Amino acid sequence: MSEHESTHHDSLTFMRELMDNADCLITQSQVERALDRMAEAITDKLGDKLPVFYCVMNGGLITTGHLLTRLGFPLEVDYLHATRYRGGIRGGELFWRVSPEVPMAGRHVVIVDDILDEGATLAAILAYCRAAGAASISTAVLVDKRHERKAAPDLKADYCGLEVEDRYVFGFGMDYKGYWRNAPGIFAPKGM
Ligand SMILES: O=P(O)(O)OC[C@H]1O[C@H](OP(=O)(O)OP(=O)(O)O)[C@H](O)[C@@H]1O
Ligand code: HPA
Which SUPFAM superfamilies has this protein been placed in (predicted)? Predict the structure, then answer.
């Protein structure tokens, strides 16, 4: 076996075992119900505002897709890519990979992400939206992680689906070292 094949095999085995042994914290049907509730609340507030939704790549991809198909009103979609984990499991400096294209000035902006953890990502994106002159800014996250390490003590999303305990989680957009964003629920590696 070449070195490349052996590394590939080890990673495949590791990632399969990670999933097989993971604790399921939130099932797919709980996620679906949370998305229904978020969609209803967003529709009440923004249904007649012609808002622009910005997906925070990569983690926000799955939540954005599932949320948007529940919204029966006219809206625009764009994305931005800001990352502070960069494939690891600890946050660092925020790195802007891609800035949004649709101008925010005078628009009702909705930022959609998978998780509010320490909140540094969301805080920086909010500052960006304010500087860009958005008429209003709302934030929607699928999960908020319960702990006392938030970037600001009152940092909350306007629309939040669920809370998770203070463990590193993956699934429904969230990765474990780049993998398992596709897991259909929210999971935590055993023992972490
Ligand atoms: O609240 P924070 O502690 O700032 O963490 C939350 C952010 O971290 C993750 O992104 P990440 O930097 O891992 O990039 P990714 O979306 O490409 O995985 C997640 O998608 C959020 O955007
Ligand atoms: O717990 C997490 N899982 C995946 N991505 C994350 N980004 C911040 N926290 C997390």
Answer: PRTase-like
Atom in ligand 1 nearest the alpha carbon of residue 83: 12
Distance 145 CA to ligand 2 centre (A): 9
Which whole number is the average pLDDT over 103-113?
Answer: 98
Give distance in angstroms: CA of 80 to centre of ligand 1.
12
CATH of region 27-188: 3.40.50.2020
In sequence order, which residues have a C-beta less than 8 Å from that of residue 134 and are 6 or more positions away?
A: 104, 105, 106, 107, 108, 109
In which residue are the tokens 């809370």 written? 163
Residue nearest to atom 12 of ligand 1 (CA): 83
- Pairing relation of β-strands 136-145 and 76-83? unpaired
> Which stretches within 22-166 are classed as H helix?
28-46, 60-68, 120-131
- The reported pTM is 0.96
- Please give the single-letter amino acid code of residue 155: L
The pick from 89, 116, 150, 165 for probing ligand 2's pocket by mutation, whose C-beta has the most ligand atoms within 8 angstroms, reads 89
